[in-house]
Design goal:
Largest interface: A-B, 43 and 34 residues
Structural class of chain A: alpha+beta
Strand content of chain A: over 45%
Shape of chain B: rod-shaped
Number of helices of chain A: 3
Order of helices and strands of chain B: EHHEEHHEEE
Number of domains of chain A: 1
Oligomer: heterodimer
Helix content of chain B: 10-25%
Number of strands of chain B: 6
Largest sheet of chain B: 6 strands, antiparallel
Number of domains of chain B: 1
Radius of gyration of chain A: 24 Å
Distance between the termini of chain B: 26 Å
Distance between the termini of chain A: 37 Å
Chain lengths: 131, 171
């Protein structure tokens, strides 16, 4: 009887100290594909880009001689991370999957859009087991 | 704890298809997408793409704070911590806020201490960070590809058995 009670207590402790956590974290400015598609290389300007997509997450400046801080490219990124976290007493394990929507827009010397690079993968991360 | 984070695999076929001198920046962007890092020199535009694996392993020992008052045990913990530098977590392994909170709660339960108490956590950490990188250099005047390179394991960092001591308080 005492042995059964000890076993039951041990099982109860194991249940209490084990856990599983699923988390989803999203960072960055929203990126709408329709808005990105309205940006036209050779025509759209920096003002058009900020009107459609908002403030960039990063501004890349060029540093050519006699170039003041010229805004050469804008970066927009929205990231989603899904994490599965498992713990049992002393041991814990986690698996993390991260994907992002990523847009980089290049400007020429006149401040007109030259190239637009896009990748939309933010909906693709998945929960997974850490084993 | 084993934590694996794998970024998207390299499109190696797309990298091989880039022709130095013939292709332009638009071709690179069409094949590889937006660069993870973009920088400029006086004459060049440097586009870098990363992929890699981050692996973290932790083994935690929960020691109830009350137990540290036992003769010798607290001293031993202090001496052990003296020989190891404070652990600084790199950005790649930094846990999100939700995980840190969950870890603290589960750690207190795992330490089998009352919720009004606390426990010391001794952690042995192992870290491995491997990044593979594609670098494409484009001429700023002509926007033609001048150079391309595939750099393997540029940040191969491995630490073994780093001892980190922290105190969890739940009161």
């Amino acid at each position: 009887m005492r042995r059964f009670g000890a076993l039951l207590t041990g099982l109860g402790v194991a249940v209490l100290v084990s856990g599983c956590v699923l988390t989803q974290t999203t960072d960055g400015s929203p990126l709408a594909r329709d808005a990105v598609n309205e940006i036209v290389p050779g025509t759209s300007t920096r003002a058009d880009v900020t009107r459609l997509l908002g403030t960039p997450d990063e501004i890349v400046y060029s540093n050519r001689e006699h170039d003041r801080l010229f805004e050469r490219a804008y970066r927009y990124e929205r990231t989603r991370r899904k994490t599965t976290y498992f713990t049992l007493i002393l041991f814990s394990a986690a698996n993390s999957d991260k994907n992002s929507d990523h847009v980089v827009i290049f400007f020429d010397d006149r401040g007109v859009v030259e190239d637009v690079a896009t990748r939309f993968e933010m909906d693709e991360p998945r929960y997974g087991t850490p084993f | 704890m084993a934590q694996v984070e794998v970024r998207r695999p390299f499109p190696v076929a797309d990298f091989d298809a880039i022709e130095v001198g013939a292709n332009g920046r638009a071709d690179v962007l069409a094949r590889l997408g937006p660069p993870d890092r973009l920088s400029y020199t006086l004459a060049d535009e440097v586009l870098e793409y990363d992929t890699g694996r981050h692996r973290a392993t932790d083994l935690r020992f929960f020691v109830p704070s009350d137990a540290l008052r036992l003769p010798g045990l607290g001293t031993a913990m202090g001496i052990l911590g003296f020989f190891f530098e404070p652990f600084e977590e790199s950005e790649a392994f930094r846990q999100p806020r939700e995980l840190r909170a969950s870890t603290a709660v589960l750690g207190a339960v795992g330490g089998l201490v009352p919720f009004t108490g606390g426990s010391d956590v001794l952690t042995l950490r192992g870290r491995q960070l491997r990044t593979d990188r594609i670098r494409v250099i484009v001429d700023r005047e002509t926007l033609r590809v001048k150079q391309k390179a595939l750099l393997l394991a540029t940040d191969d960092l491995e630490r073994q058995s780093i001892v980190d001591r922290a105190t969890l308080r739940t009161d």
